[in-house]
Specification:
Length: 260
Amino acid sequence: MSSKGRARDTSVQSVDRAVSILQVLAVQGPSGVTEVADALDIHKSTVYRLLATLEARGLVEQDSERGSYRIGYTVVELAGGATKGNDLSLLSRPVCQELAAAVGETVNVAVYDGEAVISIDQVLGNAAITSIDWVGKRTPLHATSAGKVFLAHMSQPEAAEILEQPLEEYTPHTITDPALLKEQLQGVRELGYGVISEELEIGLASLSAPIRSLNGEVIATVTVSGPTFRINDHTISGLAEQLVAAGEKISWRKGYIRRG
């Protein structure tokens, strides 16, 4: 790589880290150099240099007495132009379009609402054969990959209360045993995504990954769905890698902090 290319890479990394610093201050409140460095796993000298640049542009302010930094008023001014773009469906659509084009399947973004999952946006891939418009439809938590992601990341008492209720069997493959579902939810947390195959509809499989907010809360999911002859044990690994990356990208757009 040329020296010009290395300089460009370094500049991009600096911008990425500077944004991460702003996100840390937004979540933690006024913080010192060491606190920010620990949160992002970045060397203190790098954090200090970036904070000095952000302070010069009014994006952060330093408390002269305590030495801690906080978000500056310039950020408030910049935020005024982002009110409409904060809508999740608008924010996630470019990422979903990229994912649908890459995998060829239907991609949805869904939110949790009153013990159900509701799709708020949908993008069809080139290989998609379904004509179902999932937007606005309520689907069950226990029989959808998106629902299992929400169940896996909600509090244990809340999840237990849902799983202890009578669970509808939509197909012969629907899992209604709370003990088996709890095992699956542990797998969702370990893998970073949820999977179903013919649990809601015969012939339909899907994978879902979490979308996180600024504070790390799972606020939505991104889902890839399609026929079982294309989404199965042979293809899930490759699809999951792209799906999780898309979820992380949308989360980043929502302000979720990445380490490093």
